[in-house]
Design goal:
By secondary structure, this protein is of the alpha+beta class. 24% of the residues lie in helices and 27% in strands. It is built from nine helices and 22 strands. The radius of gyration is 21 Å and the shape is globular. The chain starts with 7 loop residues before the first strand and ends with a strand. 40% of the residues are buried.
Length: 347
């Protein structure tokens, strides 16, 4: 099939793991009318959507057209309604919003990736999730060939999840229905904002700052914490936290606690069910994987939740290590670790 002249054949794909992955074609989406132009051409053609590739594992050549998100632009009203195109970098948006005098995104500083990826994953850190701030988003619907809007409730946000990760809504990995084009969040004027420092590590870090603290102080503390805990993808390939923290029943947690008295547990304050969260990093480290290597695929020696590419690992080696970790944790603790990143092709 002959695609638009804007398509690049056999194109390398951006990804934070540093994997040598390519797609059959790629098209830079830097204008909304490009989506309208290519929709008829892609009707029966495999496609994938990528931003900067900070939350994907590309473990084989992608026999599809990669749509690379390059949409730009952002604005904010005097009342704090922030609208941003999906191709902007998330961390740059956080710092820009603070510079404009608005608070709300500071706990989400230094999260890598583009704005369009944020609602897919419902990104979160240090006691704040995107769902706490998002009002609505716009997306291109490949089925209807038009722009559509979603409210926060329609996105069905959950822990690192949304309808944009659900195959029943979004479709298969190589034929996604929705291409998120922009998001709108409601922020607060910094001078009137209530800052969230309840998360233990952040609360402790912020004590050393001059009082009263500002939203910029919180962002800087978050940046320092993330830099200490997580490796820079520019220095060593990684997608940050590779697994979600498991959510289990309190009964199962009680049984695990009897066997492992030092197992941390965290209440889910917004859950009506009898559930709690336990740290995946603790489980992985107790299984002996921290710092482990399988060739150039490995687990970071500073954080057991981070799988890294030491140089020449390929996607299948990363996937094999992830599966080995899953199987070992299940065998030792009876807990299944669900990956955070999206796998292309799907597994």
């Amino acid at each position: 099939m002959e695609l638009t002249a804007r398509a690049t054949r056999n194109a390398p794909l951006p990804n934070a793991l540093g994997l040598a992955a390519r797609a059959t074609d790629s098209i830079l989406i830097d204008r909304l009318d490009t989506l309208a132009q290519i929709t008829p051409e892609l009707a029966d053609h495999p496609r994938v959507i990528l931003g900067s590739g900070t939350n994907v594992v590309l473990h084989a050549p992608i026999k599809a057209t990669a749509l690379i998100n390059g949409l730009k632009g952002k604005s904010i009203t005097p009342t704090g309604e922030l609208t941003c195109a999906s191709g902007e970098l998330w961390h740059e948006l956080v710092m820009w919003s603070l510079d404009q005098g608005f608070s709300g995104l500071e706990n989400l500083a230094l999260i890598p990736g583009t704005v369009g990826a944020a609602p897919v994953q419902n990104i979160g850190a240090y006691g704040v999730e995107l769902k706490d701030l998002l009002v609505r988003l716009a997306a291109w619907d490949f089925h209807q060939a038009q722009l559509v809007s979603f409210t926060r409730d329609q996105c069905q946000f959950a822990y690192r999840d949304s309808i944009f990760k659900q195959a029943s809504v979004q479709g298969p990995w190589n034929k996604p229905r929705y291409f998120i084009t922009e998001i709108t969040c409601q922020l607060s004027v910094s001078s009137e904002a209530t800052l969230n420092t309840r998360y233990a590590d952040l609360g402790e870090a912020i004590k050393s700052y001059p009082q009263p603290i500002t939203a910029q102080d919180v962002a800087q503390a978050v940046i320092c914490l993330r830099q200490k805990k997580l490796p820079d993808p520019q220095q060593i390939g990684n997608v940050g936290s590779f697994f979600k923290n498991p959510i289990i029943s309190r009964l199962q947690a009680k049984h695990l606690k009897l066997l492992h008295p030092d197992l941390p547990q965290y209440d889910l304050t917004d859950s009506k069910e009898d559930l709690c969260k336990i740290p995946a990093a603790w489980l992985i480290e107790r299984c002996g994987f921290k710092g482990a290597r399988r060739g150039d695929a490995g687990v970071h020696d500073g954080h057991a939740l981070v799988i890294v590419n030491h140089g020449d690992a390929n996607g299948r080696e990363i996937l094999a290590l992830a599966q080995e970790i899953q199987q070992t944790v299940v065998g030792k603790f009876g807990v299944f670790l669900e990956p955070e990143p999206i796998f292309m092709p799907a597994i």
